[in-house]
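User: Okay, second chain of the day. Same drill as before: sequence in, structure tokens out.
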Amino acid sequence: MIKICVSCNSTWAGGQTCEDCGGQLRETFDGDAQSFPKGIWGYIRLQYGARRGMLVRVMALILGPVAGALLLRASFALAMPWLVFGAIGAVLAGVVVWWAIHWLAGRAVKLWVLRKGQLSKRKLARAMLKRATRR
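Assistant: Same drill. Structure tokens below.
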């Protein structure tokens, strides 16, 4: 769950106090959290969208091999010359399922999260670099 610092308006994945300034962290559904700047809400949307994209990519890592294995199992019922073609096709189908889900998850994050939050990649990279070098 994303939490927002009351003092410096930075966001954290959890905890009670901010690691930057020591201020108290608020949950995003608290009543006073709605008064924070709009830039924070775009960043929170980005975080949740990225998490969704990661979950879908994990699903791709599971569904691709499962689809390939099920088709490979079905190909063993074929006669010998067709068994080889069926096995190759099953492996290729598993790779295609994995690749399609993985690619679509990346596109969904780019389209629905980055554009909806109106956050450019350049600004995101600059903000991440600034946060990483801040002490």
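The first strand starts at residue 3 and ends at 5.

User: Thanks, on to the next one.
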